[in-house]
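Lecture notes, part 5. Sequence design as translation. It can be helpful to think of inverse folding as translation between two languages: the language of shapes and the language of residues. The source text, in structure tokens, appears below.
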């Protein structure tokens, strides 16, 4: 183990009682068991630099800070799930054992099981909190997925419904055919706009002119915060969180309960359905109350899939275990405790938060058709057309492993299927992708003991067993962006330059690098423009130092995957700018309309005074170069998460928090009017 890393670990936990299995000596023995030399890329024998470069979007940084805060406050690691390596030989690690579902009990043997009763759930939480230990879904009976006997591991080589009058933009979603919530939607005639913490405005558009026709006030359900909504014809599905005050007088101030209370509110998620048949008078036609906090939303085939987190018992009763009971531990839907057989528990003691996936039939919008509550922290979610994948870094393994649980979802039924693991960290949901045969392709970045980085591709079959891999493809570089398109993966890694790798994944047992294109800077977001072109949005960088510079647009020609080239670039004159903020839905992109745009801001230095200025930029691709079609000055507005660009026919609408401004696309994006 690296001496500096070991010292940091010892310093951070010197006041914490560390379980024997996690002492530095034990962990060092475990790492020595990993025999990875046969996978090592020969060209990386000499690490070019020990400088660490890792993209950390604001939201992920906040999540990491929160995790650190939990470690400091509670003396434990706050994680989703992991793989324990105790009592495992190298042969067992190579065996590639994964967990598949028992269809009769909806359990994942060796990983998690269906709760037999509320008492079992409550007793597990009490024991775990008493022992102050955190364990994993995956026990030491389950081995890491290093492969099967017929797996081919490939080493990389050096350099090889509404009556609208025209087209209109739609939300940029992760998976085609699976809709996602957003804060602005349009049906081609009306705009639906989040305008404050508890209101949605419906605006009729008429050739750039706008008229407010109604307001949906969500505050009637309580002190609410609007998260996002989905539009489907004459129905609007709204997610709102309501904060209920906690009566501090009911808490035992003689215990540590008050000390552990971080916030004086309880949170509930409301899924509200509005009938928009009469846009001037929206009517509430459905309401579901989910205990916990909101995470994300999907919509497919007439069902809403709402993901929430519930951990009130961790915050309010962390130390005072005598007050724990099923009323405080079991999450509720519509004020009724979910059934015990909807709860999946790890095989060993744990009191991690519940991550709930709930299905709601839009034809029966007052009830939940199915729910699965999994005890374990979830870092992110990837939803394919058929499956929901929950995944998180395993902090028991120093974050060097990501564990993934797979659930099918069909017609409102959510079923556990399998679980598996890969080495390293998944950058974002574009780095994990399911192909048409149900294989899961995953790009990861691994931090090595000597401070280096390894970018690797893993392929798991439908049972989450590893069947193929391509390890350490870049040489001390981490994954910055990824996009899968059919039989190909396009991967950007970064240290000082931007290698764009094209990987053939048509044979999942033997993926192969077809080309490697090295360029200065990196693409933070990749989008398939069409079968011939790949769009990259990112940053320029200094080739010597790796220092990140200005916003950079790139268009890559991918018609020949073995000979990918960058046919044009455009550097935007804005230092210190950022885009997307980790939210791909904030990008307006429509290749058929030949239009893409995004909000960006610049921390400029105006006469030694730091200033903040923002813009909304719109571009088209001529076939040879990028052409800027509009640059809309947004002044000193600073809230990129609430900015959206929408087009309806020949008109563009910039939604800036509580205002909408319309522009004529046929007349140089000249301003028409602003609706406040």
């Amino acid at each position: 183990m690296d001496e500096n890393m070991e010292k940091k670990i010892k310093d951070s936990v010197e006041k914490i009682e560390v379980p024997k299995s996690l002492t530095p000596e034990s962990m060092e023995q475990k790492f020595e068991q990993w025999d990875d030399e046969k996978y090592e890329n020969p060209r990386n024998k000499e690490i070019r630099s020990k400088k660490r470069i890792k993209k950390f979007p604001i939201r992920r940084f906040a999540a990491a800070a929160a995790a650190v805060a939990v470690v400091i406050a509670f003396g434990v690691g706050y994680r989703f799930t992991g793989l324990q390596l105790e009592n495992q030989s190298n042969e067992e690690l190579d065996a590639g054992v994964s967990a598949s579902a028992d269809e009769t009990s909806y359990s994942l043997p060796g990983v998690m099981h269906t709760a037999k009763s509320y008492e079992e759930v409550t007793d597990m939480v009490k024991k775990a909190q008493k022992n102050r230990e955190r364990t994993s879904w995956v026990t030491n009976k389950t081995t890491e997925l290093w492969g099967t006997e017929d797996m081919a591991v490939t080493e990389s080589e050096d350099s090889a419904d509404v009556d609208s009058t025209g087209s209109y933009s739609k939300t940029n979603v992760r998976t085609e055919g699976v809709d996602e919530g957003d804060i602005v939607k349009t049906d081609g005639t009306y705009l639906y706009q989040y305008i404050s913490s508890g209101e949605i405005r419906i605006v009729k558009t008429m050739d750039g002119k706008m008229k407010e026709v109604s307001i949906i006030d969500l505050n009637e359900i309580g002190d609410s915060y609007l998260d996002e909504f989905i539009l489907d014809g004459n129905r609007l599905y709204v997610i709102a969180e309501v904060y209920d005050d906690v009566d501090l007088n009911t808490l035992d101030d003689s215990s540590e309960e008050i000390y552990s209370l971080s916030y004086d509110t309880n949170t509930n998620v409301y899924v509200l359905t509005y009938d928009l048949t009469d846009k001037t008078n929206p009517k509430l036609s459905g309401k579901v109350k989910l205990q916990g906090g909101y995470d994300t939303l999907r919509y497919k085939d007439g069902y809403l899939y709402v993901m929430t987190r519930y951990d009130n018992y961790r915050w309010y009763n962390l130390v005072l275990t005598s007050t724990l009971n099923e009323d405080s531990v079991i999450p509720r839907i519509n004020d009724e405790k979910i059934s015990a057989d909807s709860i999946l528990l790890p095989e060993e003691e744990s009191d991690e938060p519940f991550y709930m996936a709930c299905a709601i039939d839009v034809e029966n919008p007052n009830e939940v058709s199915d729910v699965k509550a999994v005890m374990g922290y979830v870092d992110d979610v990837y939803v394919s057309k058929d499956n929901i994948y929950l995944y998180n870094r395993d902090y028991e393994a120093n974050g060097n492993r990501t564990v993934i649980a797979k659930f099918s979802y069909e017609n409102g039924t959510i079923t556990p299927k399998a679980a598996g693991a890969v080495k390293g960290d998944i950058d974002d949901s574009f780095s994990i992708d399911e192909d048409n045969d149900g294989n899961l392709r995953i790009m990861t970045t691994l931090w090595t003991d000597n401070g280096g980085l390894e970018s690797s591709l893993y392929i798991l079959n439908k049972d989450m067993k590893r069947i193929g891999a391509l390890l350490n493809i870049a040489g001390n570089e981490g994954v910055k962006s990824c996009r899968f398109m059919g039989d190909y993966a396009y991967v950007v890694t970064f240290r000082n330059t931007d290698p764009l790798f094209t990987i053939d994944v048509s044979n999942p047992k033997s993926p192969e690098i077809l080309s490697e294109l090295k360029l200065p800077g990196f693409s933070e977001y990749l989008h398939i423009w069409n079968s011939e072109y790949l769009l990259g949005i990112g940053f320029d960088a200094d080739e010597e130092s790796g220092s990140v510079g200005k916003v950079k647009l790139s268009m890559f020609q991918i018609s020949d995957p073995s000979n990918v080239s960058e046919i044009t670039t455009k550097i935007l004159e804005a230092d210190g700018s950022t885009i997307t903020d980790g939210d791909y839905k904030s990008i307006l992109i429509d290749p058929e309309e030949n239009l893409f745009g995004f909000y960006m801001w610049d921390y400029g230095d105006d006469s030694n005074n730091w200033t903040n200025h923002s813009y909304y930029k719109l571009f088209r691709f001529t076939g040879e170069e990028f052409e800027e079609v509009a640059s809309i000055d947004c002044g000193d507005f600073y809230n990129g998460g609430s900015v959206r660009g929408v087009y309806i026919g020949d008109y563009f609408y910039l939604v800036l928090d509580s205002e909408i401004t319309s522009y004529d696309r046929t007349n140089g994006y000249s301003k028409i009017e602003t609706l406040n």
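The translated text above is only one of many valid answers, since several sequences can fold into similar shapes. Residues 572-676 form one domain.
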